[in-house]
Amino acid sequence: MLNVLIVDDEPLALDVLETYIAQMSDLRLVKRCSNALEANEALKSHDIDLMFLDIQMPQLTGIDFVKTLSKPPMIVFTTAYPNYAIQGFDLNALDYLLKPISLERFVKAVNKAVEHADMAQRDNNASNQHYDGQEFFFVKADKKLVKVNFDDIIYIEGLKDYVIIRLVQGRVITLQTMKSLEDKLPQGRFKRIHRSYIVAMDKITAIEGNMVEVQEKDKPKLLPIGKNYRDELLEMIDKNRL
Prior knowledge:
By secondary structure, the protein is α/β, with parallel strands linked by helices. It contains 7 helices and 15 strands.
């Protein structure tokens, strides 16, 4: 369940959001505030996961308020003015709702927030997961069991019933499915970016458009990003973005 803060200088807008929130089992309203200064105090005293924030408010606008926060919660901007959308998304807002806000559009924003929170929790669990010191696995290749160290993997490529494990030095070809191999890898360190590719996050050198760049044998190698994997990959990248 997500702890929610709603911020708006219009009581009617607060009432609408409160009514919507009461209908969502994934949300718990912690506090409603009429301006950014009240919201700032609420963030200090409560653990807030999601904030519905009006933009046009007296004293301090919603956009300027977010700029003051070092660790903002997930933000969904609410406003009657569509011209603020670009500024909102520049601040990594999760969504941007135009007033009057329909229940359907509100639910869509909440679902996005729940998915975002679930993914963050999975990533956190993966980073905190202990592997009893194990930093490798064995796969059958060339009629023997070959040890593969996690640190040596650049990326993994699926090829029908086989996978090619591209290493810093050489490669290993084994009869495996991508799914079975993906399950053996620590999720915080490796990411499925395409139906046919898994990449080591620390081996990514750049992202351009729908391609991931890695270094293979001192030369850049471009790997495609599948549309079904792009959002989760960019979420992971954003956590380390300056």
